[in-house]
Amino acid sequence: MKKLKKITIFIGLFLIFLFSSLFYIIPLEILNIDYSSLNSSMKVLLSIGSSLIIILILVIVYHKDLKEMLWDYKKNYKEYFDLGLKCWFVGLVIMCLSNILISILTPVHEANNEVLVQNMLKASPFLSFISSSLLAPFIEEMIFRKSLGDIFDNKYFKIIMSALIFGLLHVIFSFNTWYDFLYVIPYGALGGAFSYILTKKNNIFIPITFHVLHNSIITIISIIGYLV
User: Which residue ranges make up each domain of the chain?
Assistant: First the structure.
């Protein structure tokens, strides 16, 4: 029964994540407002609103675990930061190398998901930073590391499934050609590294920390590039 409960929770959270746009699409329809007519900043703001709703749901579902893990994280943050830094670096190296190989060996030189993110950053840098660097990491780690990971007992299978689903998540809704699916590898490498951290210490705040750090660094570099 516990296993069935965990599977049900993950499926429910995944569906909420998948259809989170309904949190603002439905009110807009009721108010007879055309979403396509809104400017980029307003679209990002609506996305932030839906993300906050998901975070609220996640906190309600996992409030006991989050409270215990936060206390544990504060107590052992030096050890956890050291482990997280090493795992993140390994995942980052694999991610960069696979990105380079894909861009050299295929006609696709950049993941389409990355192109969409960059366009969003250009249109609304500050709001996009909040969305991609602060809110998205918490949501993705809680659903695709914590909730999904709770289903599997075998740690290796847990890492593989987390990496695969996390990689597919960043590709499947934005691909233009089948070559884009090769980017499951670099995205999955980082997801696998974060999942490995969780299997070692069972504290979701470690991968959340480095997911935030990773996204923040990339976002800040992109924003600086636009301003220079």
Answer: 62-227
